[in-house]
């Protein structure tokens, strides 16, 4: 305790008791106390309301009033200083009532002495200070971004901070006294058992864990375990600090994949050069021998040799196109003509069960590129789309202008700020399995039957697009279809377009509810809105969105909701929001152009649909359109 005097208010209607108490205070050995006295309920109530005292001594009987009622009233009104209740004679029922009401202690006047009173005051003050420190420490744990919790050796949760609630979607009251295996699923149980053994031996453990949250979302956490020898009434417990590194791992996977492709490309480039050195003399020799051979059989065999050598040379050229991008004749191109030509070829050569459609704006920008190579890119993507729809389906080729801003660049590792043309080739086919999706651009990797493909198609497409300064984005859902987006740098966008892009519509302080299960999308969207005079609150799933909307219904002007989320998807969220408020303004968001979802949302009366990744301009323009309708 510090040297400042402890301010004590004595509340008793008997002056003799006050005089005796003042005498006891003069006998205190350690505590430095400053005593003041009031003799009635009303004066005590007013004094307590000023919050000037460190502790209160309250007599149980205050004339016609009750000290116990004063105790209850003081605590109900926010009094944080300890209150000690005094009584003329011991009564256990009053003692219990006092403790239930929040008294720091209960003392019987007939048994009271100076040392006993001093000890009670000191303990009450020290206990209050300790509780305050615990609350402050708990508050610090609650504002930490890491999930922090304590569990006993049976994995039963004893402490659970707000970040843990946010990460695992389990509220504190749901998590406390529950076992961790009930709250989430560990992908590698043996790793957890091994970690526990190491921690018990060394006192700590650190590593990465793959877990599944309440909503079914798979996460990767960096986990630090420390053995705590005392926590509450437990002899030994485990302090666990988990950091969500899911997004970091996804970016690392993209980087490692790019490195793997680069390594494969370097290897393939070396092999291609060696193959060229082998094929060149074979082809040249065969062509020299051709006019010198007279018999038909030899000429036929020689032609087979020449044809297959040329085929090998074509494969080598494709490998080189993937590895370093073969430079062809480049010029300013208007891609709408190329897409129109591709559409005509598809209609003439593809099965009639494939329905092809195109959508090209009149003001499509131009690109600087090789027409032959870009023709090859589109044909390859369209042929793959056709192969993915053996029983027929819809093939769509879309083109659009896009200004990639910093928002978009943060969402995509290959994106750079600037003007682009986006060509989207989508199908309604069988889709691509998630494990295969990560390897589709590797050279010689194919899922087609032997003799049906070389595995160089998409690797060549990637090489060509990279050589043009662009990049490719792929989204696929099994049983729903695939969507390939090709981004190519545009050439000299018109000045009027640049000026139009710079003047972005701002808000007027309206509150927007942003609903998305990806934290990065929520954060970057919230930041964009707040940068343009909007206010924003975020929800990680439909359930949280409904709760927030019900709470802030009168303030929320518009809801921006993702369509594919765990727990409650976008469609169910929209239906529920519409039940709460039939006039709620909603923008649906998705990373995949699936027509059935678009149709469902349209049938529900939602006219605005935003596709990921979106720019700040697209976001603000869409919000501006919706809120003004």
> How would you state the average pLDDT, rounded?
82
Shape label: elongated
Low-pLDDT ranges: 450-455, 493-501
Q: What's the number of helices?
A: 22
| Strand tally | 25
Largest sheet: 7 strands, mixed
* Portion in strands: 15-25%
Radius of gyration: 37 Å
As a percent range, the share of helical residues equals: 40-55%
Give the class from helix and strand content and strand pairing. alpha/beta
Structure description:
The protein has 629 residues and is α/β, with parallel strands linked by helices. The protein contains 22 helices and 25 strands. Strands 14, 15, 16, 17, 18, 19 and 20 form a seven-stranded mixed sheet that branches. The chain has a six-stranded antiparallel sheet with strand order 9-8-13-12-11-10. Strand 24 (586-590), helix 21 and strand 25 form a beta-alpha-beta unit. Helix 11 crosses helix 16. The chain starts with 5 loop residues before the first strand and ends with a helix.
Keywords:
single chain; 25 strands; seven-stranded mixed sheet; six-stranded antiparallel sheet; alpha/beta; elongated; 22 helices; 629 residues
């Amino acid at each position: 305790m510090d040297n400042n005097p402890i301010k004590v208010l004595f509340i008793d209607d008997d002056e003799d008791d006050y005089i005796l108490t003042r005498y006891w205070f003069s006998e205190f050995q350690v505590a430095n106390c400053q005593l003041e006295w009031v003799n009635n309920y009303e004066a005590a109530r007013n004094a307590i309301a000023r919050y000037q005292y460190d502790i209160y001594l309250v007599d149980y009987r205050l004339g016609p009033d009750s000290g116990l009622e004063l105790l209850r009233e003081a605590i109900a009104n926010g009094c944080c200083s300890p209150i000690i209740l005094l009584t003329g004679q011991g009564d256990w029922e009053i003692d219990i009532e006092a403790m239930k009401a929040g008294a720091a202690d209960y003392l019987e006047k007939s048994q009271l002495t100076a040392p006993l009173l001093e000890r009670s005051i000191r303990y009450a003050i020290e206990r209050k200070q300790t509780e305050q420190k615990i609350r402050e420490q708990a508050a610090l744990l609650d504002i930490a971004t890491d999930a922090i919790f304590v569990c006993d050796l049976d994995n039963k949760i004893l402490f659970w901070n707000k970040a843990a609630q946010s990460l695992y979607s389990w509220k504190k009251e749901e998590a406390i006294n529950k076992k961790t295996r009930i709250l989430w699923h560990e992908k590698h149980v043996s790793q957890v058992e091994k970690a526990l053994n190491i921690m018990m031996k060394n006192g700590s453990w650190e590593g990465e864990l793959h877990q599944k949250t309440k909503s079914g979302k798979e996460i990767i956490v960096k986990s630090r375990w420390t053995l705590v020898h005392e926590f509450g009434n437990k002899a030994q417990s485990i302090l666990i600090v988990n950091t969500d590194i899911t997004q970091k791992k996804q970016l690392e996977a993209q980087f490692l994949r790019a490195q793997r492709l680069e390594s494969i490309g370097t290897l393939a480039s070396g092999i291609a050069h060696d193959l060229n050195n082998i094929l060149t003399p074979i082809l040249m020799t065969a062509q020299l021998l051709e006019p010198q051979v007279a018999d038909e059989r030899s000429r036929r065999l020689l032609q087979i040799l020449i044809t297959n050598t040329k085929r090998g040379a074509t494969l080598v050229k494709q490998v080189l196109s993937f590895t370093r991008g073969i430079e062809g004749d480049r010029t300013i191109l208007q891609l709408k003509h190329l897409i129109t030509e591709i559409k005509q070829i598809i209609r003439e050569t593809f099965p009639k069960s494939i329905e092809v459609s195109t959508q090209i704006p009149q003001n499509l920008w131009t690109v600087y590129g090789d027409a032959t190579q870009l023709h090859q890119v589109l044909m390859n993507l369209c042929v793959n789309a056709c192969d993915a729809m053996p029983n027929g389906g819809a093939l769509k080729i879309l083109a659009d202008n896009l200004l990639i801003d910093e928002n978009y660049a943060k969402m995509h590792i290959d994106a750079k700020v600037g003007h682009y043309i986006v060509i989207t080739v989508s199908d309604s086919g069988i889709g691509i399995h998630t494990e295969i999706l990560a390897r589709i651009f590797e050279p010689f990797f194919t899922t087609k039957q032997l003799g049906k493909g070389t595995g160089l198609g998409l690797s060549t497409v990637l090489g060509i697009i990279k050589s043009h300064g662009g990049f490719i984005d792929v989204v696929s859902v099994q049983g729903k279809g695939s969507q390939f987006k090709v981004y190519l740098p545009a050439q000299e966008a018109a000045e009027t377009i640049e000026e139009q892009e710079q003047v972005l519509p701002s808000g007027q302080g309206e509150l927007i509810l942003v609903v998305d299960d990806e934290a990065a999308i929520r954060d970057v969207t919230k930041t964009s809105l707040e940068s343009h005079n909007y206010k924003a609150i975020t929800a990680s799933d439909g359930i949280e969105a409904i709760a927030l909307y019900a709470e802030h219904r009168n303030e929320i002007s518009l809801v921006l909701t993702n369509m594919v989320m765990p727990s409650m998807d976008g469609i169910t969220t929209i239906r529920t929001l519409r039940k709460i408020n039939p006039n709620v303004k909603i923008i649906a968001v998705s990373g995949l152009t699936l027509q059935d979802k678009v149709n469902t949302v349209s049938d529900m009366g939602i006219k605005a649909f935003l596709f990921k990744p979106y720019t700040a301009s697209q976001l603000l323009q869409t919000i501006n359109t919706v809120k003004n309708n």
